[in-house]
Design brief:
- This protein has helices at 31-47, 70-75, 78-89, 114-121, 124-143, 163-173, 175-178, 192-198, 200-206, 233-247, 259-267, 274-281, 283-287, 294-303, and strands spanning 14-21, 50-57, 61-68, 98-100, 106-108, 155-160, 291-292, 312-313, 321-322.
- The chain has a 4-stranded antiparallel beta sheet, sandwiched between helices. The chain has a 3-stranded antiparallel beta sheet with strand order 7-9-8, with helices on one face.
- By secondary structure, it is an alpha+beta fold.
- The protein has 3 domains: 14-69 and 125-278, Transposase IS200-like (Alpha-Beta Plaits); 72-121, no CATH class; 284-322, no CATH class.
- A hairpin with a 7-residue loop joins β8 and β9 (321-322).
- It is built from 14 helices and 9 strands.
Length: 328
Amino acid sequence: MARTRRQWISQQAGSFHIISRTAGGDVRFSDEEKEYFLNLLERFASGFFVEIHTFCVMGTHFHVQATGLEVEAEKAEAKELFRRYRLIYGQDAEPPVGSYEVDGSVIPDEDAGVERLRQRLGSISRFVQELKQTFSCWYNKRHKRKGYLWGDRFKGVIVDKGEAQLVCSAYIDLNPIRANIVKRPEDYRWSSLGLRVGNPGRAKKLLGVIFESSGESIAGERKMIKTADENDINTLSWYREFVYISGGIAREGKGKIPEELVDEVKRCHGKLGLGDRLGYRVKNISEGLAIGSYGFISSLQEKLKRKFIRPRSFFAGNLLYATRILRV
């Protein structure tokens, strides 16, 4: 039976909620494997013309809400296309310049493969396929297994701009709550809200807006939610409060955020207090290499001949910095 043709919409119209599950649900990803998947998501998102709004990597499946940026892909010059290709596949990688024959010979494209590359990097479907295939190869090699890792092809649910994107984002970030893994959604490390709160610098590189205004009023306000940094902490707080209120609504057979935590977040309108912010930064003390002034961290990395990574702010402000957390 032929597979149903996918329905795609333009970036002006909305985004996609992408869901993919492991075959049979028998495979459960470890924390290290979730982290590797997140690393791959960052790598492929840096090259493909996609904007990631929200994501969550669970033990047996993942969710990603993303928009395909076909307008940017169409406008991209050859130099930009090649740059993005090498961000994904390595600085020495050479993109295909034509189509392959059965005998392995290549029929060159008239434009040396530029349009072929544009179509590839501008496809959100290709983005998901390569993300899954790369992770599957790594996972099977790691576990010395063969066969399919993922079940049926991924689901791509069309999401309208505005309120639909907001509700979908909250649904995705609440997955760890519904699965009774954590009590607070931002405590889950492999979700977009966890990343926005716990590691704003990393979130800013990977994540775009949570939802785009469709010109209609949402809860009496017109908002554009952005990634978390010092300039848009209020919009992140607004979204966090929305997630908590949504997570406090009971769903049969699913976990929920305790009422007292919902009330606590509502009282401060979603804003993280100093104690919360210290809690999310304190992991630098035990998991990082060092903390100190910017110059101290820079000189230490140079002395240890460590690949230079810009020291990251330890707290808000410019007093203390830390090396990148050592990932598991």
